[in-house]
Amino acid sequence: MACVSIVLADRYPVFLRGLISVLREQDDFDIVASCCNGTECVRAIRDLSPRIALLDISMPGLSGLQVLATAASEGLRTRVLLLTSSMEAHELATAAARGAYGAVPRDASPETLIGYLRQVAAGRKILPFLSDEEPRHVQGRRTRNGDAQDILSLLTERERQIMQLVSEGLSNKEIGHWLEISDGTIKVHLHNIYQKLSINNRTTLAALAMSRRDESAWLTGSH
Question: Which of 87, 105, 133 is the last residue of a domain?
Fold first, then answer.
């Protein structure tokens, strides 16, 4: 089995050592660098081209989001997974828009972390950036591999259209005009979407849609 190269970065040396210890117990990961700040992390990603970078979102120097933005602007192919204690909706949207593969809570179990890393290594994004705290009914709808496609497949074609238009920044009135339905109907659809995806605002919905931009045909029902 080929090892997956990985760069680790966290502002706390003790936590970083814990990550190293957990991953060294696995046969399928090769830690090529470990860093305590964002500047060192960017340098390691540039020089070593790891398959995955597991990054603390709040590192000194450059934050995890800034490292992610740098990697995206330079066309680096490393898949970025963020470590976070909490993530605000706008940070979620920013991370998804910049190509993050997901966000992992810092208090996740070693088994959860390893599972997420293996998903990312296989090219699957962790959507919609769910943690161990996600509702049981949502967990039950995820595929065995943790892919969120089963969750999104609960949406109707109209709901997928609205989700896509929300991600493009359209207001309810603009979406209603585009789809030729009333503003009240849009609100009902959004309520249903939020319920099905276990989210509570359009920012998170937009982040989820943006993170699947490469599957826009699926979102619009033309698959």
Answer: 133
